[in-house]
Amino acid sequence: MSTGTKLLIGAGGVLLAWWLLPTWFILLVLVGVPVAGYLMLDSSQRRRLTGRSNRRLSS
Fold first, then answer.
1. pLDDT at res. 50
2. How far apart are CA 42 and CA 23, in angstroms?
3. Is the pLDDT of residue 59 over 60?
4. The domain containing residue 48 runs over which residues?
5. What are the tens digits of pLDDT across the range 15-35?
6. What percent of the chain shows pLDDT beyond 70?
7. Whether the Cβ atoms of residue 18 and residue 25 lie closer than 8 Å to each other
8. Could you give the CA distance from residue 27 to residue 59 in angstroms, rounded to a whole number?
9. CA 20, CA 1: separation in Å to the nearest integer?
10. Dihedrals phi, psi of 40, to nearest 5 degrees
11. Among 12, 15, 34, 32, which Cα is nearest to 24's?
């Protein structure tokens, strides 16, 4: 499957979810999933991730 097709399917899924589900639930998922993923990292992985973002901002 090409990248464009994957993006189209993903965008269609987001639009369908936006239409079927309440807005608060979608916002909860959009914010909650990345936060939960970050909290599941151990301290060395968080430090490495923070270091990458700091280097990207300074250059």
1. 83
2. 32
3. no
4. 22-59
5. 887 788 888 888 888 899 999
6. 90
7. no
8. 32
9. 26
10. -80, -10
11. 32
CA distance linking residue 44 with residue 29, whole number of Å? 26
When divided into structural domains, the chain yields a total of 1
In whole angstroms, what is the distance from residue 29 CA to residue 8 CA? 20
Contact assessment for residue 18 and residue 26, using Cβ atoms and an 8 Å cutoff: yes
31-55 residue pLDDT tens: 999 999 999 999 999 999 888 777 6
Cβ atoms of residues 38 and 46 within 8 Å: yes
Two structure tokens written together for 42? 């151990």
Q: What single-letter amino acid sits at 24?
A: W
Backbone angles phi, psi at 25, to 5 degrees: -70, -40
